[in-house]
What does this fold into?
Amino acid sequence: MRYVLIVIASVSILIAACGNQDQNSASTTGAVDGKDLYNKKCGICHGRDGKLMASGAPDLTVSKMEKQGIVQIITMGKGNMPPHKETLTTTEIAAIADHVITLRSPQ
Ligand code: HEC
It folds into this structure.
């Protein structure tokens, strides 16, 4: 009986591992694409270039916010900006924050 449980547990782990691989294979590199996620999750208010300023969103190209603050605001939201902690993983949020910084105009 115990042996059967171990087999069931191992099979579940294998299925879970395969599921994760399937998700990754959607992108060519297997890495998280911060730009693509930004365009999908943030572009509606901030625009792909960061300058749309819809729904009272600030222009991200002139933002001085540091990465830690960007991660915080993506995770928890603020004012009219919704929190994303239920829909994005911490890895995805970090990749998006890196992309947000690249939107800034060169100094
Ligand atoms: C529904 C519209 C909306 C969406 C979607 C949205 N934001 Fe925002 N964002 C806002 C608003 C409004 C603010 C201003 C919040 C405040 O300060 O009250 C803001 C503020 C910010 C700031 C702070 C800028 C600064 O210098 O103060 C950053 C960074 C940011 N958003 C990044 C993102 C990222 C990255 C995403 C996608 C994960 C995202 N936002 C999704 C509306 C949105």
